[in-house]
Amino acid sequence: MVILDESDNTKRSSANTSRAETGKLAKKIQNAKKDRLGKAAAVAMRQREMTGSGKAFRMVSEFVSAVIVATALGFAIDAIFGTRPIFMIVFLLMGFAAGMLNVVRAAKEMNANAPKPDPDKLVPIDDDDD
Amino acid sequence: MAGTDPIHQFNIVELLSFGTIGADAQGEGGFSLVFTNSALFMVLTVGIIAGYLILSTRGRGLVPSKLQLVSEITYEFIANMIRSSAGNEGMKFFPFVFSLFTFILVSNMLGMFPYFFTVASHLIVTVALALLVMSVVIIYGVYKNGFGFLKLFVPSGIPFLVLIIVVPIEILSFLSRPLSLSLRLFGNILAGHIVLKVFAGFVVSLTSMGIFGIFGAVLPFGMTVALTGLEFLVGALQAFVFTILTCVYLNDAIHPGH
């Protein structure tokens, strides 16, 4: 009886430990998964932030392409209706606005992806000599 | 200066001609079907990608080998990119986005070999890629949302009078996307390769100017080495930017309306 009891106990305890171990393992896996996602995001972020010229080129191409497309469209409309250069001018201005919109959107997106600044560092340093 | 011409690397060479369709009596005009060096490098790119992915994942190891790991990391990288910018619904487009990314990345890396041709250095190639992206966005957007896709051009919460101005601007902004997408990739690759070749050309022309020239050539040589590294970075970065913008645009097709 005693022996049986003991074996029963050990069985239970081993079941408990194995459950605890599984729990630990599950947590470990979860952490690893979180880590990996975080790392992938961090890598993506770093890659995006890597070159300032890359960012600048993005802005420029967003702006310039809108102006080019709009002007070309205006030119085509003028060519069809023979109203040169009214539509070209109107579309050039609208392309300017669309380009600005593109740039603002791109900047917003870059801001959203940039790491948040540390709020403690935003507090102005008290450098008064009271 | 035949050896140091920086534009020479972009020449299209006809390798195999399949004849011309619709030429007139003098053999002018028409549409010629030619297998060029550009096409050769596209085929090479696709071959390398397909070959690598198939061979590296053939083992199907639960614990991946190093080669398989690279394939899996690429998969996860693209999958995370799509999920974060277009949501889980965007995973429908995973094969498309993955193909785009690997094609641009591998073709840019191939272009870094001396004497190799860089596919993305021709505007027509990048325009074709960008138009492919935009047609997928438009066709899927209309197929899924019907006329609701036009909500993309109408920002919510704006009075009617302002809409008259805003809607054409939004439409223009949308129309400019394929151009900006293609110009960026083309411009980066073209400019980078030209600058690289110009500096390398300085080395050649300086060394032919006697002993001082040889010492002077150290400077552009160092620059060439640095620029080569930068070009690898730019090639990878532009592939990344192209695909992430594709994801952003696909997100517009899936969820139009801001």
Structural class estimated from helices and strands of chain A: mainly alpha
General shape of chain B: globular
Per DSSP E runs of 2 or more residues, the count of β-strands of chain A stands at 0
Order of strands across the main sheet of chain B: 1-2
Total number of distinct structural domains of chain A: 2
User: Roughly how much helix do the residues of chain A carry, as a percent range?
Assistant: over 70%
| Largest sheet data of chain A | none
Rg over alpha carbons of chain A: 32 Å
Task: Provide the β-strand percentage band of chain A.
Answer: under 5%
How far apart are the termini of chain B? Answer: 55 Å
How many distinct beta strands of chain B?
Answer: 2
Overall average pLDDT of chain A: 76
Q: Largest interface, with Cβ-Cβ < 8 Å?
A: A-B, 31 and 28 residues
Total of DSSP H or I helical runs spanning 4+ residues of chain A: 4
What are the low-pLDDT stretches of chain A, counting only 5+ consecutive residues below 50?
A: none
Write the layout of secondary structure elements.
The complex is a heterodimer of chains A (130) and B (258).
Chain A: H1 2-49, H2 52-81, H3 86-113, H4 119-122
Chain B: E1 14-21, E2 31-36, H1 37-56, H2 66-86, H3 94-110, H4 123-145, H5 160-207, H6 210-216, H7 218-254
Antiparallel strand pairs in B: 1-2
Helix pairs in contact in B: 1-3, 2-3, 2-7, 3-7, 4-5, 4-7, 5-6, 5-7
Any key phrases for this structure?
heterodimer, A: 130 residues, mainly alpha, B: two-stranded antiparallel ribbon, globular
Describe this structure in a few short sentences:
Chain A has 130 residues and is an all-alpha fold. Chain A is built from four helices and no strands. The radius of gyration of chain A is 32 Å and the shape is elongated.
If you had to describe this structure to a student in words, what would you say it looks like?
The complex is a heterodimer of chains A (130) and B (258). With 130 residues, chain A is mostly helical. Chain A has two domains: 1-50; 51-119, no CATH class. Chain A has four helices and no strands. Chain B is mainly alpha-helical and 258 residues long. In chain B, helix 4 packs antiparallel against helix 5, helix 4 packs parallel to helix 7 (218-254) and helix 5 packs antiparallel against helix 6. Chain B has one domain (8-20, 32-254). Chain B is built from seven helices and two strands. The A-B interface holds A 36-37, 40-41, 43-44, 47-48, 50-51, 54, 57-58, 61-62, 64-66, 68-70, 73, 91, 94-95, 97-99, 101-102, 109 and B 76-77, 80-81, 84, 168-170, 172-173, 175-177, 179-180, 183-184, 187-188, 233-234, 236-238, 240-241, 244, 248.
